[in-house]
Amino acid sequence: MSETSSTEAREPSIPRQPGARRTLLEVDQVVLRFGGVVALNDVSFQIHEGEILGLIGPNGAGKTTTFNVMTGVFKPTSGQVRFDGARVSGRKPPEISRMGISRTFQNIRLFPEMTALENVMVGTDSRHKTSVPGALFRLYRVRPKPEELPQVTSDVPLLRIWQQVRRTCAQIFGLSRHILEERAAEKKSLELLQFVGIEGRANEVARNLPYGDQRRLEIARALATEPKLLCLDEPAAGFNPAEKEQLLTLIRQIRDRGHTVLLIEHDMRLVMGVTDRVVVLEFGTKIADGSPDEVSRDPRVIAAYLGESVDAA
Ligand SMILES: Nc1ncnc2c1ncn2[C@@H]1O[C@H](COP(=O)(O)OP(=O)(O)OP(=O)(O)O)[C@@H](O)[C@H]1O
């Protein structure tokens, strides 16, 4: 399980109301200034374990900036973010990823020359135990499980003997932990490609994939880090209605796999259809926090969306 390396920053556990879900992430009075621009103005909200929380607001409201503060890209001017009882603010993005927060980007950021499978395998790296020297020099050997041993399958006598020798050596001397981790990563990555519905594209180079598949691939890569909290930044951008419908189902399935989800999205039908709760920002300030139904009837939210009802927006 992801555990922070330093214990000194561990905060007292966040109080929990009887019967209430555990608070997984807490944004606490966060202010972020870029020179004279106040991008986030005393923003506070919580994300509960197992929920799908929508983060909405008009353009420039501060949604992506909130993601960036949560994932360590920006350090808040004041206030802090706590995740799973530990302070996030001030940590580097890779460390925050290991703590269990993962994200996708508004503008897709894949490794364009790598295959879909390789892109997802990169995501599994943060969970590997073997260091670079350990991998290069095969420093660590572990006793493999029976199914991990080299198989003896050939009918050609000489080849069969060679396979038998390899199997016996693996039984006696063990196998490189790096090799076993790579094999497990490949298996897990293939399963994730299947989960997001693009297993047939595993060996295609990412830049050649259709746009919708690139978005799904980003989600698979983010899931490969085994996040407790997955942050999706406008995952439906550029999707047609049928693709949005599939995405809605996928987001629910992600939650059902045990991940908590934070969703930034402009498509209100999607937000209202999939979220349990919605936080609304306007000009860097939180103006509403409630169920999709409550928020869509909130006069301040309606005014923020230029007088239209949220459904219409
Ligand atoms: N690196 C930066 N430097 C200066 N100002 C920034 C920076 N990043 C964001 N801002 C400003 O912070 C404010 C919030 O921007 P942000 O991108 O978080 O909004 P958003 O709600 O995600 O908008 P959109 O829906 O258009 O993506 C905007 O005024 C933006 O110009």
From TrEMBL:
The keyword Cell membrane does not apply. Signal peptide: none annotated. InterPro entries: AAA+_ATPase, ABC_AA/LPS_Transport, ABC_transporter-like_ATP-bd, BCA_ABC_TP_C, P-loop_NTPase. The keyword Nucleotide-binding applies. Keywords: ATP-binding, Nucleotide-binding, Transport. It holds the Pfam family ABC_tran. Gene3D superfamilies: P-loop containing nucleotide triphosphate hydrolases. CDD domains: ABC_Mj1267_LivG_branched. This is ABC transporter ATP-binding protein. It comes from Plantactinospora endophytica.
